[in-house]
Amino acid sequence: MLLGILVTAIYLLCTLLSPLTGSTEAAGAAVTEGARAAIPFVLEIAGALCLWSGVLELLERSGVSAGLARLLRRPLRRLFPRSSREEGLLSALTENLSANLLGLGNAATPAGIRAAKGMAALGGRGEDELCLLVVLNTASLQLLPAMIASVRAAAGAAAPFDILPAVWLSSACSVCCGLLAAALFRRLWR
Amino acid sequence: MALKSLGALAAPLLICCALLTARLHGVDVYDALLCGARRGLKTALEILPALLVLFPAIYLLRASGLPELLGQVLGPLLRTLGVPEETGLLMLLRPLSGSAALSAATEIIGRCGPDSLPGRTAAVMLGSSETTFYVVAVYFSAAGVKRSRWAIPAALCADLACFLSSAWVCRLLWG
Asked: Is A16 inside a domain boundary?
């Protein structure tokens, strides 16, 4: 729905705008060029993506995500005081965040949805904590951004992963700001 | 800088750590790598239809002259904030659609080069943020909650912080 509107808006706006900016020729060629470019792009990133998915699979099987989940229990208890009184909810929460950290979207979303359902059922404080869970999930916490590293590798980067420290710093900043904003808005909302 | 050389060697170092950890836990290393490779191929195949729809739209957007117009309006503000102008469009698309943002970031990385400042900034922005509206929609609809209350404003604050800090960290390390 949202994407349909977005694509329609882009096509309408750009088609009408290009005569005004004198870029009709470029715009006319761009559509087919874009469709053509999508195929080699996916082929180019697929290799690196497979390598990094393999590394994540190794970490998963070695119990790294279970270890992360144990480490996350204490901070999550403080962030979600109401929900963490229920053992099932707390373990869904830790599973969600540790899978997110490892970039295992397939495992993170079902656990997150389990936690979200439980919180909605609590009402009151639970609904505030549901908002906080969503904010934490929208601020990406990924330790190994495999997709973007693959894109950089395909484009011929000297060291595709040299952006890693920057990604970590920026993610940490975004999570902290999300938590601060949540604490602020939660008070303002009443 | 130490951070820089750590980043340069990050890929082989990470693989070494993962292999050693797996070995210590008695994991079948080769089978795990194979399984991951299979999953990677599946992911690539899964994102392909969305990219086939969105790449033409992003290419058209790029060619239409709209980014230049946006640049004239937003450029001074972005320059004051220390954010590369090329990433303006990416920041607008990021919370709306993951595939559109991936297409836009790929376009920036291809045009400016993966090791240029705008290319790196685009990569860091993409790697450290999520598709906010999609996540909000998935979680609230799954939980059966109609009003998302303060979740969207707070999440957008986090996105803004992410974009600004991406730009500043990249400028500090590679500017």
From this structure: no
Q: In this complex, do B36 and A54 lie within 8 Å of one another by their Cβ atoms?
A: yes
Could you say which residues from 39 to 78 on chain A have a Cβ atom under 8 Å away from some Cβ of chain B? Answer: 39, 41-42, 45-46, 49-59, 61-64
Q: Is A103 on the interface with B (CB under 8 A)?
A: no
Q: Which of A157, A160, A63 is nearest to A102 (CA)?
A: A63
Distance CA(A38)–CA(B100), nearest Å, equals 12
Contact between B18 and A171 using a beta-carbon 8 Å cutoff: no
Between the two ends of chain A, the Cα-to-Cα distance in Å is: 31
Q: How far apart, in whole angstroms, are the C-alpha atoms of residue A107 and residue A133?
A: 16
- The reply to whether A155 touches chain B by the CB within 8 Å rule is yes
Q: What secondary structure does DSSP assign to chain A, as a single string?
A: -HHHHHHHHHHHHHHHHHHHHT-HHHHHHHHHHHHHHHHHHHHHHHHHHHHHHHHHHHHHHTTHHHHHHHHHHHHHHHH-TTGGGSHHHHHHHHHHHHHHHTT-HHHHHHHHHHHHHHHHHH-THHHHHHHHHHHHHHS---SS-HHHHHHHHHTT-SSGGGGHHHHHHHHHHHHHHHHHHHHHHHHHH-
Q: What is the pLDDT of residues A85-127, one digit of tens each?
A: 989 999 999 999 998 888 877 778 889 999 999 999 998 888 8
**Nearest-10 crossing angle of helices A146-154, B98-112:** 30
Q: Are A93 and A80 in contact (CB under 8 A)?
A: yes
ipTM of the complex in this document:
0.88
> What is the mean pLDDT of the segment spanning A60-67?
88
Asked if residue A62 is part of any domain, the answer here is: yes
CB contact under 8 A, B142 and A113: yes
The domain total for chain A is: 1
Q: In this structure, is residue A110 part of a structural domain?
A: yes
Which of A24, A45, A50, A128 would you mutate first to test chain B, the one with the most B CBs within 10 A? A50
What would the two tokens of residue B47 be?
Answer: 């994102």
Tokens of B154: 């707070």
Q: What is the pLDDT of residues B29-74, one digit of tens each?
A: 999 999 999 988 988 888 899 889 989 998 999 898 888 888 888 8
- Smallest CA–CA distance, residue B117 to chain A, in Å, is 11
